[in-house]
Design the sequence.
């Protein structure tokens, strides 16, 4: 699993130089290196406290996309849960939008992906810090 953050406002990596009001694109890639399909996966993306998660159901005009690659998504104020299946040797890429909403130095939580019924199947990214400047 891999997480990438891109500052759409400044057109650069979002790990440094984030300013208040910048638009952030979060891209999560999950791959299945095994030769078996894995179903019932749950991806949990938590936002740093200084970022506001943009819920596409509130801001987009279309209700559903026929190319959606997940079973269900549940947007909360500070996180989004994505439930999906992953084919053998497959790769799923999920893209989310956020906005730098508060100035400060914030904790960047890990992104996790795990099988809902088998605790032996899981992945996790590193944690870190995100600084938002004026």
Sequence:
């Amino acid at each position: 699993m891999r997480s990438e953050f891109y500052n759409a406002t400044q057109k650069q990596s979002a790990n440094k130089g984030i300013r208040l009001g910048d638009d952030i694109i979060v891209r999560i890639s999950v791959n299945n290196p095994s030769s078996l399909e894995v179903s019932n996966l749950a991806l949990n993306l938590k936002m740093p406290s200084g970022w506001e998660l943009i819920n596409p159901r509130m801001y987009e005009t279309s209700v559903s996309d026929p190319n959606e690659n997940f079973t269900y998504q549940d947007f909360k104020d500070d996180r989004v849960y994505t439930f999906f299946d992953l084919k053998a040797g497959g790769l799923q890429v999920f893209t989310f939008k956020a906005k730098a909403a508060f100035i400060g130095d914030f904790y960047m939580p890990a992104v996790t992906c795990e099988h809902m019924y088998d605790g032996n199947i899981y992945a996790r990214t590193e944690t870190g810090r995100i600084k938002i400047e004026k």
Summary: The helical segments are 56-59. The radius of gyration is 15 Å. Residues 56-59 form the longest helix (4 residues).
